[in-house]
Amino acid sequence: MMLPWAVMLRAALSAGVTPDAFWRLSLREWRWLAGEGGEAMSRGRLAALMGAYPDGEVRAASSFDFAQDESRTF
Predict the structure, then answer these.
(1) Does pLDDT of 38 surpass 80?
(2) Rounded Cα distance, 68 and 74, in Å
(3) Rounded to an integer, what distance in angstroms lies between the CA atom of residue 9 and that of residue 30?
(4) Model pTM above 0.85
(5) What is the pLDDT of residue 13?
(6) What phi and psi values does residue 55 have, to the nearest 5 degrees?
(7) What domain of life does the UniProt record list for this protein's source (predicted)?
(8) How many Å apart are CA 65 and CA 70, to the nearest integer?
(9) Cα–Cα dist 71/67, whole Å
(10) pLDDT tens for residues 3-30?
(11) SS3 31
(12) What angle do CA 34, 36, 42 make, to 5 degrees?
């Protein structure tokens, strides 16, 4: 069975994938790009993942934070 490479490449190009990136795609990445991926994650599964891997405290950086941190280079 021959794969329709030309059709697949045109589909990837129309999605903004460059030719060199197309040839580096894994089968899993191609299936996702082509819409052949699995079902969307359920709300319950997302909640379980969020509980298992919390983002932690989020705070906005101020200009004071950058002024005090001399290890930063710009």
Answers:
(1) no
(2) 14
(3) 11
(4) no
(5) 87
(6) -75, -25
(7) Bacteria
(8) 10
(9) 10
(10) 788 888 888 888 888 989 988 988 888 8
(11) helix
(12) 125
